[in-house]
Amino acid sequence: MLLTKFVRYQLIAFAIIAVVSIAWIAVSYMRVPSMLGLGRNTVELVLPSGGGLYPKSNVTYRGVHAGVVNGLRIEGDQVVVTMYLDSDLDIPKDGLLAEVHSRSAIGEQYIELLPQTDLGPYLADGDRIDSTLLPTSTAELVDTLDVALQDVPREDLKSLIDESGAAFTNSGSDLQQILDGLDKFLQEGQQNLAPTLNLIDNGGPLLDTQVESADNIRAWTGYLDSITSSVAANDASVRGLFVNGASAGAEATDLFDRIAPNLPTALGNLDSVADVLRIYNMSLEQILVVYPPLAAGAQSIVRGSKPGMVNLDFNLDINAPPPCLTGFVPPDQRRSPADATVIDSQTSNYCAVAEDDPYVVRGARNLPCLDVPGVRAPDVDACRAGGAAPLGTNPWIGGP
Questions:
Q1: Tens digit of each residue's pLDDT (9 = 90 or more) over 363-377
Q2: Beta strands 78-86 and 107-114: pairing type?
Q3: pTM, whole model, 2 decimals?
């Protein structure tokens, strides 16, 4: 088959492009430029031990691949790790932390570079980093776990495993929901990264308040311990409460249903009574203080000093001091004692003279107004009006 000149040129161009592409892919995959020292910085990391690192271990900078481990060597009681880092990355040198981590349970250690600032100077070829941040070795972890398990009784450990198996049996869907919820939570945190970081950064003051409130928290937990201890000591009563609680609740519901029509009215009336009792609280206390001696005095009168006798003083003290007539029904308008009909009182029936008048100084006109401090009056209306006006002066009984 004869090929035209144009086709031959196309095949030659295609062959050249294929060779160049394959060569570039091979060179990139084999990292030939890095092997030749192009585009890389050689940095040494000094560790107290190898930490499970090996040649070709990855080196990351803030979670991004930054280079590889070239080799390890021993210098005295330390291990020096030689790293090849990408020279295009500006890695701050001051305060730089280098931590050795493990990617999985089987190892795969790598080095994580964690800068503490974004400012220079930056790592350069030939720099050295000192670090002591190594992961716990698998052997040490296994030994520690073995010692911990030896301190746990075998029967208790078996019970723990059996109970854990029983607890998580057929709970796969529930655990999956928990994991899905955690995954959604993490996704929300990533989508709202700035507020999340702000919350983390400002969490210190909140934790400080918890530290300052440590004594109160301990006291609260102590009270909680006393409550739970009391509940445990009265376990039978608590169980009885739960057993009989439903029937008691039903009885209470039936009671409230029966008193529901009248309960609002009764509570409204009690509210009015409570207001009165609140205002006249001091007067009620005075009655409770004075009444017992009066009752005791009445009992002493009835008992008498001798059997069959009573103690009663008939000293009437007439006109000492003289009685008060102002504010009462005049003598010429008084009814006969034989008239027992009920009529409305036309007067206030108290000594209605001035407050500073010497007559009946303990009368109703000088009663303190409990709802209006500083005012004295015979009734509530007069209290709220600022006091009662005197009706006159007390006339002399004997006349002019």
A1: 888 888 888 888 998
A2: unpaired
A3: 0.35
